[in-house]
Amino acid sequence: MLPPAMLPPPMPTLHPVLAEMADLEWRIAYPGGAPSEPVSAESMQAWLDARQAEGSELVWRSDWPEWIPARDVFPEHFTGLDFTGLDSFSG
């Protein structure tokens, strides 16, 4: 058994939507901005865990036909926030 200092860091636990197809590309579009470059499921999880997401962003997975508000894909990360008047769009 390796000493704790030599063990690799634990893999982050992925949100179920990220884990179901972890090899697919994701993109993030901030309101009024261009979509991001492709990111991995692990990067999306890090973005969520760092609380950088506000919920008004749109997210897209490479097997989805349309962009979806982050608050709809990952609702537990945005509990208690008010999104009145925000709508999704087709990309």
Distinctive features:
single chain; 91 residues; alpha+beta; Dna Ligase, domain 1; three-stranded antiparallel sheet; 3 helices
Strand content: 5-15%
In the CATH hierarchy, the architecture of the domain at 25-80 is 2-Layer Sandwich
Overall form: globular
Q: Which radius of gyration do the C-alpha atoms yield?
A: 15 Å
Helix/strand-derived class? alpha+beta
Strand order of the largest sheet: 1-2-3
- Number of separate helices: 3
List low-confidence stretches. 81-91
CATH level 4 superfamily of the domain at 25-80: GYF domain
CATH topology of the domain at 25-80: Dna Ligase, domain 1
Instruction: Indicate the percent of residues in helices.
Output: 10-25%
Q: According to CATH, what is the class of the domain at 25-80?
A: Alpha Beta
What kind of assembly state do the chains in view correspond to?
single chain
> Cα distance, first to last residue?
50 Å
Overall average pLDDT: 83
Number of β-strand runs? 3
Largest sheet entry: 3 strands, antiparallel
Order of helices and strands: HEHEEH
Descriptive overview:
The chain has 91 residues and is of the alpha+beta class. The chain has a domain at 25-80: GYF domain (Dna Ligase, domain 1, 2-Layer Sandwich), CATH 3.30.1490. It is 19% helix and 11% strand. The chain has a three-stranded antiparallel β-sheet. The chain has helices spanning 16-19, 41-49, 70-73; strands at 26-29, 58-61, 68-69. It is globular and about 50 Å long.
